[in-house]
User: Fold this.
Amino acid sequence: MTEWALKAERLTLGYGRRALFRDLSFEVARGAILGIVGPNGSGKTTLLRTILGLLRPLAGVAHWQAGLSISYVPQRERIDRTIPVTVLEVVLMGPGAKAPALHRTGRADRESADRALARLGIESVGRTLFRNLSTGQQQRALLARALATDPDVLVLDEPTAGMDVASEAITMEFLRDLNRTRHVTILIVTHLLPLVLNLATSMMLVGSQSILHGPIDDVLHEDRLTALYGVPVHLGVVAGRRTLVVNRGNQPHV
Amino acid sequence: MSSIEATSPMFEPVFMRVALLASITIGASLSVLGVYLVIRRVVFLGLVVANAATLGAALAEAVGVATEIPSLALAVGTAVALGGVESSNRVSAESLMGWAYAAASSATVLVLSSTTGDSTHTLSLLFGNILAVEGADVVGLTVIAIVILLVQWLFARRFLLVTFDPDAATVAGVNTWRWSMALNLLIGISAAAAVQSTGALLTFALLTLPAMAALLATSSVRATFATAAALGIVLPSIGLAFSFYLDLPAGPATVALLALSVPLAAMNRDAESPQDRPPH
Assistant:
């Protein structure tokens, strides 16, 4: 039996008295890569904020396996950019958040931050102000902050928003490597299904009123995706990789 | 004759020396805490808290008790209550603070107008009079400022963390709500301590303008706090000098100087080197 990292039991979530989803029960296995995918406004971020404990569920419970270290990489837009913090200071906030309030930054913290910056390939911008980085670099700095805490679980909300194609590919490859070499459980929220098509081991399709969850091969069906997105969706395999084609009129969109 | 008296006739009267010490302690603590208000985009919280402190003092006057405790209680209560308010789909947190400001300031005037016929005293409560501060008050203000600056120095990393990215901090196990409330508590205490000496307007100005200018003029966290503190100390002192030599009201003169510091800081930012600017 696979050990779980996250378990939701009869979870009802929403805002105020308005429930978006009712009675959700699911488990996320340790070491899985879960893609939480759905159209804009479907409730993905609400689901994510609820399972992270940032939003109180209307009913039920979502709990993480005891002792797991969880790191969250929020959408870049949610980060304050008026504070003149350097990239290194941002990354040091990761270990700092896990340490006691009176903890002073030491050599071990700096080494951990330097390693994380190097793994993300942004060690040269450590002294640069975070707000002065490009979108892709900011996202990588936030990823480095999460990595500096040596997490068991990494939760990412739209991690490639604003990135160019090359940065997007590098980030996805980095996450795959992190999962393979360090067995980090990864949850990725995205509205871009192709982003996680060849990365996720399991998938959560978030529709307007229902959520479908399971191994990726069980969840990915053309008729389900067509119903979810409201346009004809075709799945295929090219050079051993899953591809997705959306038909809008006579012009296919890959 | 002390050295300070020897350098300037401004410091010959005792009340000027007391006023200078009071403005230094108030300016230092309010301007440092103000950095968080500006970063969190809740500058109106400073205005509401300052007016709540004034209302507390007015209510105390109305029932004939000492003003300190009611003023402190109302300021801290307001800071904590409004600090936890979040914008909804219908009403923004800023609008709620605007409502609270209007309610507190109108209630203050109504309470004062119904209990005292002395308009000078009413004006003093509303706008403060730093020149009327007494020596004993300065001791209290200094103790409060030292405690606030010490707490800020000890926990600056935690305060910055919950300000920069409260969601990630919460997921990491930090009690973001408790730290935000601690910060609001400090703001409430410092505003209540200051408001009877400086008035609501100068208290609000000290909470927001040095921080704004510092954020515009500097490129590091340490420099931002240091510059805000320096402006909060130096500009009120210059305001006192203007008051003494030009016979201007000290509070408005200081607020004018603080307001002037913001466009000057913005001009300095415009002159910064191109590599310091964000990429397009």
Remarks:
- The longest strand of chain A covers residues 4-15.
- Chain A has a mean pLDDT of 89.
